[in-house]
Amino acid sequence: MDNTRFIESMDTIIYDLSRELPKYQRYNRLLQAWRDTFACDACVLLKLEGDNLVPKSANGLQVEAMGRHFPVAEHPRFEQILAHYDYDNENEIQKKVHRFDAVCELPDPYDGLIQTPDGQLNVHDCMGAVLVIDNKPWGIVTMDALNPQRFDSLDPQILNSMIGLTEVVIKTANLIFALDQKVQRQEQVTASLIKEKFSEEMIGSSSAMNMLNLEIDLVADSDLAALIYGESGSGKELVARKIHMASKRAKEALITVNCAALPETMVESELFGHVVGAFTGATKNRLGKFELADGGTLFLDEIGELPLSIQAKLLRVIQFGELQRLGSDKPHKVDVRLITATNRDLAKEVAEGRFRDDLYHRLTVYPLKVPSLRERGNDILLLAGNFLAKIQRKVGINNLTLSKDAERVLLAYEWPGNVRELEHLLSRASLRAAARNRKDDRVVVLEGNDLDIQTTSDATTLSPSLSVNRAVTTDVDNRRGQHDIVINTQDHDNSLKQITDDFQTQFINKMLAENNGNSAATARAIGVDRSNLHRLMKRLEIQ
Questions:
Q1: Which class for 170: exposed (0-12), middle (13-18), buried (19 or more C-beta within 10 A)?
Q2: For residue 232, what is the DSSP state?
Q3: Residue 530's closest CA among 512, 506, 510?
Q4: Which of 93, 220, 318, 509 has its CA 20 to 30 A from that of 23?
């Protein structure tokens, strides 16, 4: 036997171990190496599955052989090959090779399948070996040669080496396949979770939201740093998700970090990672959020809470795209799209020395303002409908709806907690409404009193001593003189809400008249936001 052919075959097998190949192709190339090494006419790899030997790859047989199962009990040659292994003193399987006599009269399972002129295997050389994976018989490999003396000069050491390499290839192929299956399952689970997480839409058709959506579309396809600012609960994280999903990095990770929730002593480790021994308890290397987000997007929420010492290191990562893990002086390159968010006035933080000026300018390449809920008008009702649809599934109610009174209450409220407050408020109100109704009711209606919120304007409140035809004064009196507003309760049901509405209507009309119908001047005069005044005027049907 030519040792050169064995060395070449071994090189091919070892090289293939480092390649990403389908299992069938890996096995085909393996068997070709067997044929090249031993100059046989056919080589077959069969896996033991229950009581059958199933071909996994065949080189030199008819194609139809791959579709067959060989019951071991019906094929005495296979039985004899499988019988040639036992346990040594260390309880490990000892492989043995079995070679059949050229004149062996046992039927050959490959009769009619080998590529010969007449398709028959008459006098020929045949041998097989048991393949052992993890101390269990995995299957067998067989060789057939039309020359009856082909294997007379076979080198046992080379044969044992080929058997060992084959077992390594099989185990490697199985591990790669298992890992691939696991990755596919994880990708499916991840895709499902991402779809669920990111399916939450940015609901709203107000001019403020339309403008925000335009800004998102504009910045998403670039790699510019984006700063999202707005009040707490207004939906800044949702904006960050939408930017990521609309970007060219959408298939990569979006890593979210709430900077306000990180202890100051752990911020550097969380963002940049650490090595063993960097601090007490650092027993192994750990990647930081920047490296986890490599190739994707990192969203740093509440960026204004970062300590100044960390801000300097963050600036370096943004400038040079490299970081150093805590406890290491080795730089690591990262490719990350950075999105940040804050409810603070960062310009003011810079002026007062709590935020680095250079970092501020790096982060605010493209600022996006998320409007507060009170600026979004009828978006409140659209959001309420979306939340109620989710809530009714959670609490097991058939259909949750809002009464007209509840709608008026929602539109009149100031929403200091924004969208988050709306969701929580509707959850509580739904439980109250559900307790008032049977679960099998087709429709459960949320009334205004279920919401349990104040509906009066921030600018004015009714005096507890308000009576019929009594003149009412407000703190505006101190700025613009006395304003006598008479409330006549003879024409309605004396409800507090109706009296309040009448008072607000008269008061706003009087202030509008004094400001020549200018709503902006009127809003300033009575100390409320202009958008709040417009919403209140719409509810009260004031032209």
A1: buried
A2: T
A3: 512
A4: 93
Helices (H), 321-370: 346-351, 357-363
On the CB side of 503, CA atoms within 13 Å amount to: 25
Q: How many CB atoms lie within 10 A of CB 73?
A: 10
Task: Give how far the C-alpha of residue 489 lies from the chain's centroid of Cα atoms, to the nearest Å.
Answer: 59
198-246 per-position pLDDT tens digit = 556 789 999 999 999 999 999 998 999 999 999 999 999 999 999 999 9
CA quadruple 32, 36, 40, 41: dihedral positive or negative?
Answer: positive
Q: What are phi and psi of 90, to 5 degrees?
A: -95, 15
Is this prediction's pTM over 0.70? no
Side chain identity at 83, as an amino acid letter?
A: A
Q: Give the DSSP letter string of 21-32.
A: --HHHHHHHHHH
Residue 154: name the closest of 115, 124, 127 by CA: 127
Measuring CA to CA, how many Å separate 218 from each of 111, 248, 436? 70, 13, 48
Token pair belonging to 7: 């060395």
Q: What distance in Å separates the CA atoms of residue 527 and residue 511, rounded to the nearest whole number?
A: 12
How far apart CA 47 and CA 49 sit, in angstroms, is 6
- Report yes or no: 325 and 273 within 8 Å, Cβ to Cβ: yes
Q: Using the CB atoms, write b or e for 229-254: b if 16+ within 10 Å.
A: bbbebbbbbbbbbbbbbebebeebbb
Q: How far apart are CA 34 and CA 169, in angstroms?
A: 13
d(CA 493, CA 510): 24
Cα gap 193→272, rounded to integer Å: 26
Contacts 24+ apart (CB under 8 A), 15-19: 16/169, 17/168, 17/169, 17/172
454-512 confidence digits (pLDDT tens):
654 433 333 333 333 333 333 334 333 444 555 554 444 555 667 777 888 888 888 88
Position of tokens 């924004």?
A: 418
